[in-house]
Write a structure and sequence with these properties.
Length: about 220
């Protein structure tokens, strides 16, 4: 069974192996410390704790997954978070990515479309005493305008395009990381840097495989 040290080593290795695509041979020490300090085993189903430190995604129910640790670390790294930042996350899921963000930013706002997943994540945030996380049920296509603007926005489900509301809610100079592409086909992780006047700067980071960003909440009952 793998432990946290294996997980960190796997992240370092995969970062190196993909550096020719991402342009980053190492991730920032702050991101790696956050990856070390958030207990991933608390964010997976109790029956799966033996797989918690494998560098792969795992099912979290409702057809959704907790993302692969390397991808969580890479996306976080590309946000270039400062300690004073307010970050918006779309797709709370297990809350694992949210917890990583909360160690790096001043405030994290996270939206989840499946109510039960949001409630479970909020329970975890309370139990683990993460105090700068604000979570609610909502549709990520609309963002969270009341708390905007954000220094960074991360979308953890694949969208066919960058939702306009998210660009509107990003500060000029802010960074948005999002997987774009076909729901179950080719997807690319994209970094968008917002400019005062368009066009915004778009860079491709890596090919990825995410669950889709849905337009309408699915009914699970
Ligand atoms: N960041 C999560 C990854 C969860 S998978 C983690 O670390 O565990 C992506 C999540 O996005 C799923 O929970 C899914 O329900 C949610 N999602 C999909 N479409 C959404 C939408 N339109 N608005 C908000 N959340 C959405």
């Amino acid at each position: 069974m793998k432990n946290i040290h294996h997980m960190l080593e796997d992240i370092r290795q995969e970062t190196l192996l993909t550096a020719f695509l991402t342009g980053r041979k190492t991730l920032s020490p702050e991101v790696m410390e956050a990856m070390r300090d958030v207990p991933r085993e608390q964010f997976v189903d109790p029956g799966m704790t033996c797989l918690a430190f494998d560098n792969g995604p795992l099912p979290i129910g409702y057809g959704q997954t907790i993302s692969q640790p390397f991808i969580v670390a890479l996306m976080t790294d590309f946000l270039d978070i400062k300690p004073t930042d307010a970050i918006l996350e779309i797709g709370t899921g297990s809350g694992y990515q949210t917890a990583i963000l909360s160690l790096l930013a001043a405030r994290v706002y996270t939206l989840e479309v499946i109510e039960d997943l949001s409630l479970e994540a909020v329970d975890r945030f309370k139990r683990l005493a993460y105090q700068n996380i604000h979570a609610k049920v909502g549709n990520g296509y609309d963002g969270w305008p009341e708390q905007a603007p954000y220094d960074g926005i991360i979308v953890t489900a694949a969208a066919p395009y960058v939702p306009d509301a998210l660009i509107d809610q990003l500060k000029v100079g802010g960074r948005l990381v999002i997987p774009l592409g076909h729901p179950f086909g080719h997807q690319e992780l994209i970094l968008l840097e917002k400019r005062a006047k368009g066009p915004h700067k778009i860079s491709k980071i890596l090919d990825v495989a995410f669950v889709p960003l849905v337009d309408q909440p699915k009914k699970w009952h």
